[in-house]
Amino acid sequence: MIGTSTSDNILRRCAEGNEFSAIRKIFNFNPSSIVTLKGNSINKISDLYGKVVGVNIEASPYEQLMALISDDRSVPLEKGFFKEYPIGFGGAAQLLNKNVDAFLAYTTNQAIDVSLKNNDTKEIFLGDLGIYSYGLVLAFANAKSLKQNGLTEHDVVMISEAVIKGYDKGLTDIDNAVKYLKENDPLLDDKKVREGILKIGKLNKTVVYPHKQVDAWIKETRITDEIRNNILKLYTTIAWEDGVK
Predict the structure, then answer these.
(1) pLDDT grade for 29, boundaries at 50, 70 and 90
(2) 64 vs 14, 52, 219, 223, CA distance in Å?
(3) How much helix, strand and coil, in percent to the nearest 5, is found in the chain?
(4) E strand or H helix at 230, and its extent?
(5) I need a labelling partner for 38 at 20 to 30 A (CA). Which of 68, 96, 120, 149 fits?
């Protein structure tokens, strides 16, 4: 009924026939990046030529890199120009042990694992290269479903504002934010949680994508212009009329 996802996933779910009443971005940025070390001299996509790159072919960063390579004519390379090394949802250990020259990751998780152990960490953000996507959004089911569960249009507004405000407060009061998260999961690493909050806060304040171009990198025939436009509108409006997608 109400949940979090990524903007590209919401777009695909809509193409499958799912309906939403509202969507609000929590991460203004795309957290997908290429993580490497400064000494590896990888500063752009073409520098990956002949390198060993850690990947998870089922994760979004891999899909996004493939879309970038196939769509960007300034990168005259095809899939297979670097050697793929499976890393699952890891990557830090393989990079630091020099099993890979770089790896595809989520900046708010795997990249932090590297930066906590090596000050020479370098990242190439796929969002900086034109892969515009919101890394975390709050999505509400269609109005009919919300009404059946006693939720109103006003509730949508209040819940959205509360979640976004919570992320903002986490940045201004990191000590209590870390304390709260640790109470719910004692195994969390304090330093990693703290760095993650700081990183999210910085990226949210500095990264601005052209909203109309968000997820334009997804080239699927089932995703029509009408579907794209309807979804983009839901980031600033609420479709409370039954039958409005």
Answers:
(1) very high
(2) 19, 18, 11, 17
(3) 45, 15, 40
(4) helix 225-233
(5) 68
- Angle of CA points 10, 11, 16, to nearest 5°: 95
Mean pLDDT value of segment 95-114: 96
Strands in 118-205 per DSSP E: 121-125, 136-141
Contact in structure between 2 and 140 (CB atoms under 8 Å): yes
pLDDT tens digit string along 50-64? 999 999 999 999 999
Q: What is the Cα–Cα distance from 236 to 57, expressed in whole angstroms?
A: 33
Look at the block and give the residue holding tokens 């708010």.
Answer: 108
State how far Cα 165 lies from the chain centre. 19
- Note the pLDDT tens digit of each residue in 220-229: 899 999 999 9
Question: Rounded to two decimals, what is the model's pTM?
Answer: 0.89
Q: Predicted confidence band at 243 (pLDDT cuts at 50, 70, 90)? A: very low
- In whole angstroms, what is the distance from residue 122 CA to residue 129 CA? 15
Cα angle 1-204-73, degrees, rounded to a multiple of 5: 95
Cα–Cα distance for residue pair 136/134, rounded to 1 Å: 6
